[in-house]
Amino acid sequence: MKCALGLVVLASLLVAGCSNAPAGPIAAASAPTASASTGGSARGDFGPPQGEPVKAVLTSPPMVPPPTGRSQPAKVIVELEVREVDLEISEGATYTFWTFGGTVPGSFIRVRQGDTVEFHLKNHPDSKMPHNIDLHGVTGPGGGAASSFTAPGHASQFTFKALNQGLYVYHCATAPVGMHVANGMYGLILVEPPEGLPKVDHEYYVMQGDFYTVGKYREKGLQAFDMQKAIDENPTYVLFNGSEGALINDRALKARTGETVRLYVGNGGPNLVSSFHVIGEIFDKVWYEGGTHFQENVQTTLIPAGGAMMGEFHVEVPGSYVIVDHSLFRAFNKGALAILKVDGEQDKAIYSGKEVDSVYLGDKAANLTPVTAAREAASSGTLTLEQQVAAGKAHYTGTCSVCHQDGGTGLEGVFPPLAKSDYLAKEPAAAIRIVLNGLTGAVKVNGKDYNSVMPPMSQLNDDEIANILTYVFNSWGNSFGQVSAADVAKVRAATPRAEGAAH
Ligand SMILES: [Cu+2]
């Protein structure tokens, strides 16, 4: 069927009707679509490439290349290099990621429907593994996988025509495929509709992935891949852009009030489906599954493993918007959390104010510089009281402060005070046991009765607990001395705990 010869021809055919065209979505003028010119994939064949070949602009996450700005199909040359690199997966923890372009997710590729893409895949000589690429935007067996198998120190080349518009995942498909993907080998390719996408103020690239390490969540040092956890679909980390720190603090996504933000979001998996949600925003439009149609006014959108979506919203109110996988233990206990920081004028008519990000974010909102300093000092044996207090303060904020409050004041009748607590003064060392195992039943603190529940906080590691308690013991008029990681380790080891209670 050679019905679509070009954009102009195509547009007139839509009006006149085309006897060869399948009835259905292309004719449905009432359905909201990114482009009216969709239909069978052959409709994306706008003929041979025009003009000089162009080199694709590739970007590292969270950036997105500029629109192609072309009205004709071109030959586009993509050069992507696979590199196996050690990167931080969490504060103080590294992982050997296998990457397309040195980052997780890999470089963002942007072409126009009808483009002929000449793809060059290089595998860095330092790589230990062969790799290839399967692009979901390719029409052809394996999506390019068989043609792109590349040993370390080699390069391969194949060419495809981008017939279908949409946002597509690409990934490595070398055996064991799950392992290559779990190591970060995925990214996104956008095939723009021929007329381009509506202009927005910011475009960002975010991709979720699940990671499996032998060590526990936030265990320090170089972490190895855990095949059994991967088979069990029991990730240690669920992350946006490959690291707990990728999109928080000074690396948060940014916008100003009055602007429109478009997110290109993929899910590399390999296992989990994402319930993608921006806390405090509503997607004005979601091109679900990265396809042609959009849904409007969406709170949470599902992104399958190996799938993608485009979402847009207009920002009205300044503040920190927390981006999560709404399977919430992934967000708060496995790292699936990012921030969009919006600056600008308050609009009290839309929202009254009072930010709550510290409660949401816990220690992720904290400045982690003192934590890093304390960790380095601890490993070189020079940790001082002041360093412990500073690091402990960062961890206390948003962890203990949620209940015991910033000044350690507690909330009368609900959460007992830690400031000048006579209960604490009686036996300061008991605080280690309380943090690790929680506390229930009636207690009397400074003459007031409490009978509530403190949950165990054993997800904190020994250093973190030692620093938090040293901060509590030396703040707000308290003077109970110092707690060491060894003190905490001793109590932890002496406490029988069900398998899985500790990370
Ligand atoms: Cu690979």
Account of the 3D structure:
Helices cover 19% and strands 29% of the residues. The chain has twelve helices and 23 strands. A hairpin with a 2-residue loop joins strand 2 (75-90) and strand 3 (93-100). The protein is elongated, with a radius of gyration of 26 Å. Residues 1-38 and 499-503 have low confidence and may be disordered. The site of copper (II) ion has 7 residues, from loops.
Bound molecules: copper (II) ion
Structural classification: alpha/beta
Q: Any low-confidence stretches, pLDDT <50, length ≥5?
A: 1-38, 499-503
Q: What fraction of residues sit in β-strands?
A: 25-35%
Mean pLDDT: 88
Task: Summarize the SSE layout with pairings.
Layout: H1 7-16, E1 54-55, E2 75-90, E3 93-100, E4 109-112, E5 116-123, E6 134-135, E7 155-161, E8 166-171, H2 177-182, E9 186-192, E10 202-211, E11 221-223, H3 227-231, E12 237-240, E13 253-256, E14 260-269, E15 274-278, E16 283-287, E17 295-298, E18 300-303, E19 307-314, E20 319-325, H4 328-333, E21 337-343, H5 357-361, H6 369-379, H7 385-396, H8 401-404, H9 422-426, H10 430-437, E22 439-445, E23 448-454, H11 462-473, H12 485-494
Parallel strand pairs: 1-2, 2-5, 3-11, 4-9, 10-14, 13-21
Antiparallel strand pairs: 2-3, 5-7, 6-8, 8-9, 10-12, 14-19, 15-18, 15-20, 16-17, 16-19, 20-21, 22-23
The structure holds copper (II) ion (CU).
